[in-house]
């Protein structure tokens, strides 16, 4: 694999990771909100 291909692969990889992290943090926030709504 050439260096250019590796760079393109890395650039393509990170947005997906960011999207997954955003989704997980949003889901975590939502579950916390539901939990507190249920508690109080």
Structure explained in plain terms:
With 40 residues, the chain is an all-alpha fold. It is built from one helix and no strands. The protein has one helix at residues 3-39.
Short précis:
With 40 residues, this protein is mainly α. The chain has one helix at 3-39.
Secondary structure topology:
Layout: H1 3-39
Strand content: under 5%
Intertermini distance: 56 Å
Morphology call: rod-shaped
Mean pLDDT, all residues: 75
Based on the structure, what is the oligomeric state of the protein chains? single chain
Structural class: mainly alpha
Organism: Fusobacterium pseudoperiodonticum
Protein name: Riboflavin synthase subunit alpha
Keyword list:
Riboflavin synthase subunit alpha; mainly alpha; 92% helix
